[in-house]
Specification:
alpha/beta, Rossmann fold, 7-stranded parallel sheet
């Protein structure tokens, strides 16, 4: 029988691993998946922030726990995958969200800062996706991978913005998503990306200060920045059977900024 829309979006019995999940967009995504019924493993570098985030999720009735790990380090990535599998069983949903940014003019951008951004924002996504797929998703021929990209990966910068490494890494995430979706379709693993626009967060505080909140709002056809709800719907669509026929895709959640900019 054809399932109802409520049944299609239901994530009860699923386990999700969310990196960079202790605050901001990652925590919003964890709330979305948990509210749809999934059990949540959060990861980030700082144990104290993870403890607070898990307490918040648990207060909302979500089954959540945490592992501190640096997704720029190969050994930490493998440990994160192994410990999640040991503690929670198979991983049904992987959200690659851990990320870093660095602002500097291209001609003066430090090479070590370039490497830091690339290692976390794209290399870490690949290594964790590979580990989770080989250890859990491919053997079962089932899985969902959600990569957090950015509208910064769809084009250049407005004048005054100097984030070439970040933009490059997020452009790579988009094509990584498309390529992996094509390659792993045979394993029934759906791979999709979300491209957020401007959301107030610790990572975007510099941008908001440099360009001004009102100016950023004015660039969006909807006249607003993202809030604590705006990524939830797309995340659960990608993670659930409601999105089972979607793979290798990316969608901007940006109030329309990218359509005006030609993204």
């Amino acid at each position: 029988m054809t399932r109802t829309i409520q049944q299609l979006f239901d994530l009860k019995g699923k386990t999700a691993l969310v990196t960079g999940g202790s605050r901001g967009l990652g925590l919003q995504l964890a709330h979305a998946l948990g509210e749809a019924g999934a059990r949540i493993m959060l990861s980030a570098r700082k144990a104290d922030e993870l403890e607070q985030a898990v307490a918040e999720l648990q207060a909302a009735g979500i089954d959540a726990r945490w592992i501190a790990a640096d997704c720029a380090k190969d050994a930490d990535i493998q440990r994160l995958a192994d410990e999640t599998l040991q503690r929670m069983g198979d991983i049904d949903i992987l959200v690659n969200n851990a990320g870093a940014a660095w602002g500097a003019p291209a001609e003066d951008h430090p090479i070590d800062a370039w490497d830091k951004v690339m290692n976390l924002n794209i290399r870490g996504y690949f290594i964790l996706s590979q580990a989770v797929a080989k250890k859990s998703m491919i053997p079962r021929k089932a899985g969902r991978i959600i990569n957090i990209a950015s509208i910064a990966g769809l084009g250049g910068n407005p004048p005054g913005m100097t984030t070439i490494a970040y933009n490059t890494s997020k452009g790579a995430v988009i094509n990584f998503t498309r390529t992996l979706g094509a390659e792993w379709g045979k394993y029934n693993i759906n791979v999709n990306a979300i491209c957020p626009g401007f959301f107030p967060s610790k990572m975007t505080v510099g941008t908001l200060k440099a360009l001004g909140e009102e100016k950023l709002k004015a660039h969006a056809p909807l006249g607003r920045l993202g809030d604590d709800e705006d990524l939830k719907g797309l995340c659960v669509l990608y993670a659930s059977d409601a999105g089972k026929h979607i793979t290798g895709q990316y969608m901007a959640v940006d109030g329309g900024v990218s359509i005006v900019a030609g993204g």
